[in-house]
Delta-aminolevulinic acid dehydratase
Amino acid sequence: MSHQPAAFPAARLRRTRQSGAIRNLVREHTLTVDDLIWPVFVRDGQGIEEPVASMPGVVRRSVDKIAEAAREAADLGISAICLFPYTDPSLKTEDCAEAWNPGNLSNRAIRAIKEAVPEIAIMTDVALDPYNINGHDGYVVDGEILNDETVEALVKMAVAQAESGADIIGPSDMMDGRIGAIRTALEASGHSNVMILSYAAKYASAFYGPFRDAVGASGALKGDKATYQMDPGNSDEALRLVGRDLDEGADMVMVKPGMPYLDICRRVKDQFGVPTYAYQVSGEYAMIMAAAQNGWIDGDKAMVESLLGFKRAGCDGILTYFAPAVARKLAGQ
Ligand code: PBG
């Protein structure tokens, strides 16, 4: 082998991959515990942690256990926790009144966490599906999802959450006009510091399946959510939705699901330059866990790689069921 000066490649990109030290030095994006929002499921009772079959490692917790979990999350450095209630079927009605009951499960959990762990930010979900007898995010009349009547209910729900101590309101319902209506009501009720993280670009996705099991909505849901959630074939529409929600008063925006929609995350971040989040949803979590449990992939590595992808795509943070596991891994535990 001769080494003629003219024979070397013009660019040896492998040079900056030659060792761990050099790779660390040139890495553009990193995942940190600051990037994590942890979605959790709340149920009734005392001292209960009940596994969700389709989400290995995820449990539904009673309010006391949620407060304990929030303590552990905060001790790991996780900044925010996001609450989803598993509502008893007997509380699901046509008018969804349990949604704005100050004493509902979600609002009780907010108060318990605020008291036990004041430093963690509490995010909520605003949509009628946990309380709706037919499993939809909005009121259903003659098979149609009503927009404006639903927005009125969502406003009451959001104000009850703010009154309970929520820091970040997360409307996930995809009705038109809800961000402006909620913002106005929050201002009027003395909650001008309560933030809105809009589920602005939320797609009608098959990846929500395990979540609907976790909150007990799969049995109730009649039909699909395609008349309000986005068509997976669209991306310009996502930008219109984000722009509209920002105009109406959203402080932060979300793309959901995550991994199949990284192009949307990138377009949103490039166009608007606002705090942008992705939701790595239940089906994404379930796929990684199922493959890992079968020994088909290295679960820990896939977890970190999947989350780093969101950072590379421009996200400021990720809602992920992996939050405690990845926080522990990042802390070297
Ligand atoms: C309901 C809601 C859903 C999720 C969050 N809020 C499900 C749906 O729209 O049917 C999904 C989260 C997940 O799959 O992890 N408003």
Residues 125, 127, 129, 137, 172-173, 208, 211-212, 225, 281-282 surround PBG (CB under 6 Å). The mean pLDDT is 96. The radius of gyration is 21 Å. The chain has eleven helices and twelve strands.
